Amino acid sequence: MEVDKGKGEAEETRKVAEADRDTVTLKSSDGKLFEVSKEAAARLSTVLAGMIAGGSIDDNGTDLKQIGSEALENVVDYCNKHANSIPSAALISSSISFNTAPFKEPEEWERKFVDRLSHDALFDLVEAANFLGMERLLDVTCHKISEMMKGKSPDQIREVFNIKNDYTKEELEEIRQELAWAFYDD
Amino acid sequence: MEGAPPASRPGSDSLCEEFSKAALGSFPSPSWSDLPIDILISILQWLELPQALAFASVCTTWRAAAIGAGVPCSFAPWIMSWGKHLKETHVHGRCSSVVTCNLYHPVDVKKYYGVSFQRVALFFAVEPLTDG
């Protein structure tokens, strides 16, 4: 137990120390801790940027209850790789307007980064990127997912992603007619 | 009586079980059909029209996302223009050029989808502008 005397002072020192640190500690849903550069976190994630600016970063590990350790490790890994290998400004510019400005294709290292992931890991990472407001990582993961669909029919896509077909027979027939020009020869 | 565990609240307990069964479904791993709609829309922006239509046909949630993203899922008319770029691609050692048409939504012209055609053969190219 801490004595009251000097507590305020300790608190003050802790706060100063926290402000001086150039990393932030993130805690996954299963309690694992990860360090990430404060600069990269703030630049790549709007949510973390907001937390850093708002002072809601916990020195002992900021709780990210929605993100498991594997996904968080990938997020941190991505931030570190990004900080090391990218001339910054180039990638921040991607705008969100739908299909008006083509998105910048993933860089070679970003492709490799997502290519090594299992389906489940990719799924968790895309959700984590979305949750943390990491626009670029979301683009990169979504690009990877779109690549997995290319050249495939709806049936093949369902198979790849293990998705149940929840259409009725009638709806399916309607869709089949709509898509006949693109996918079916008859 | 008071210290005993709440033996029978039959309704809520079995309901809970039902719910968790329903939530887990038959897929123990995360279900791609339940991705949040904004993620699905982010995926759609990387797809050309034929692939976006295939996406829309996968399941009802994906269709809802596609409609939200402006993918023309019905026989609605769209405006077509030639895309600016002609691209050379090398597939399996053969060189072919591909031209892209853009299909614009008649109401919201900011939304458009690309469709790639092989320039020489004029075959409909489901495979979009990638180098393999």
UniProtKB/TrEMBL annotation, chain A:
<comment type="subunit">
    <text>Part of a SCF (SKP1-cullin-F-box) protein ligase complex.</text>
</comment>
<dbReference type="Pfam" id="PF03931">
    <property type="entry name" value="Skp1_POZ"/>
</dbReference>
<keyword id="KW-0833">Ubl conjugation pathway</keyword>
<feature type="domain" description="SKP1 component POZ">
    <location>
        <begin position="23"/>
        <end position="84"/>
    </location>
</feature>
<comment type="similarity">
    <text>Belongs to the SKP1 family.</text>
</comment>
<dbReference type="GO" id="GO:0006511">
    <property type="term" value="P:ubiquitin-dependent protein catabolic process"/>
</dbReference>
<dbReference type="InterPro" id="IPR016897">
    <property type="entry name" value="SKP1"/>
</dbReference>
<comment type="pathway">
    <text>Protein modification; protein ubiquitination.</text>
</comment>
<comment type="function">
    <text>Involved in ubiquitination and subsequent proteasomal degradation of target proteins. Together with CUL1, RBX1 and a F-box protein, it forms a SCF E3 ubiquitin ligase complex. The functional specificity of this complex depends on the type of F-box protein. In the SCF complex, it serves as an adapter that links the F-box protein to CUL1.</text>
</comment>
<dbReference type="GO" id="GO:0009867">
    <property type="term" value="P:jasmonic acid mediated signaling pathway"/>
</dbReference>
<protein>
    <recommendedName>
        <fullName>SKP1-like protein</fullName>
    </recommendedName>
</protein>
<dbReference type="Pfam" id="PF01466">
    <property type="entry name" value="Skp1"/>
</dbReference>
<dbReference type="InterPro" id="IPR016073">
    <property type="entry name" value="Skp1_comp_POZ"/>
</dbReference>
<dbReference type="InterPro" id="IPR001232">
    <property type="entry name" value="SKP1-like"/>
</dbReference>
<feature type="region of interest" description="Disordered">
    <location>
        <begin position="1"/>
        <end position="21"/>
    </location>
</feature>
<dbReference type="InterPro" id="IPR011333">
    <property type="entry name" value="SKP1/BTB/POZ_sf"/>
</dbReference>
<dbReference type="GO" id="GO:0016567">
    <property type="term" value="P:protein ubiquitination"/>
</dbReference>
<feature type="domain" description="SKP1 component dimerisation">
    <location>
        <begin position="136"/>
        <end position="182"/>
    </location>
</feature>
<dbReference type="InterPro" id="IPR036296">
    <property type="entry name" value="SKP1-like_dim_sf"/>
</dbReference>
<dbReference type="InterPro" id="IPR016072">
    <property type="entry name" value="Skp1_comp_dimer"/>
</dbReference>
From TrEMBL, chain B:
<protein>
    <recommendedName>
        <fullName>F-box domain-containing protein</fullName>
    </recommendedName>
</protein>
<dbReference type="InterPro" id="IPR001810">
    <property type="entry name" value="F-box_dom"/>
</dbReference>
<feature type="domain" description="F-box">
    <location>
        <begin position="32"/>
        <end position="65"/>
    </location>
</feature>
<dbReference type="Pfam" id="PF00646">
    <property type="entry name" value="F-box"/>
</dbReference>
<dbReference type="InterPro" id="IPR036047">
    <property type="entry name" value="F-box-like_dom_sf"/>
</dbReference>
